[in-house]
Write a structure and sequence with these properties.
147 residues; 8-stranded antiparallel beta sheet
Length: 147
C-alpha cells in the first residue's frame, strides 16, 4: 500500500468520525441529510474479519424504500472497503435517521447505472468528477429492503 493510499484511507476514516460526532453532539438533529441527499450508516460484515463494520455514506437516490449508494471513494483507484464487504455478503443493514433496518445490496447492472447516473450527478455533481479521476468504473449499489 502506498503512502497516498494510506492517506486516502485515513482521510475517509476522519470524515466518518466527524460525521458521527456531528450526529452524536446534535442528538441526530443534524447530519442525516447532506444537501438533497440522505445520509445513511451502512453496516456490513467484514469479508476477512467477520466483524460488523459501519460507515457513513450519502444516498443520492432514495425512493420507495430503496436506497442507492455510490462506491466512489472520492475517485480513488481502489474500491471502498465497504463495497468489497457487501459484494462478499450482500445482507446489510442501513441506519436511517437513527432506525436500523435490513437490506439486500447489489451492484447495479450497466443498464441500471446508465439510468441512475444522471439522477446521481444531479443530486451531487462531484460524482462526475470522481469518475473522471479514476479508470475504474465506479459501482452504483442498490439497497432493497428485506423483511
Amino acid at each position: 500500500m502506498t503512502l497516498r493510499d494510506r492517506l486516502t484511507d485515513l482521510g475517509m476514516l476522519a470524515m466518518n468520525g466527524v460525521h458521527r460526532m456531528l450526529l452524536v453532539t446534535t442528538r441526530g438533529r443534524l447530519g442525516w441529510t447532506i444537501g438533497t441527499m440522505a445520509a445513511v450508516e451502512l453496516h456490513t460484515i467484514g469479508r476477512s474479519s467477520g466483524q460488523r463494520r459501519s460507515t457513513m455514506l450519502t444516498a443520492p437516490i432514495h425512493e420507495g424504500g430503496r436506497y442507492v449508494l455510490v462506491a466512489s471513494k472520492g475517485g480513488d483507484d481502489r474500491h471502498p472497503f465497504w463495497y468489497a464487504n457487501l459484494v462478499a455478503q450482500p445482507e446489510v443493514e442501513l441506519t436511517i435517521r437513527g432506525v436500523t433496518r435490513p437490506f439486500r445490496a447489489r451492484t447495479a447492472s450497466s443498464a441500471e447505472k446508465a439510468e441512475l447516473w444522471p439522477r446521481i450527478i444531479a443530486a451531487y455533481p462531484g460524482y462526475r468528477k470522481y469518475q473522471t479521476k479514476t479508470d475504474r468504473d465506479i459501482p452504483v449499489v442498490i439497497c432493497d429492503p428485506r423483511p
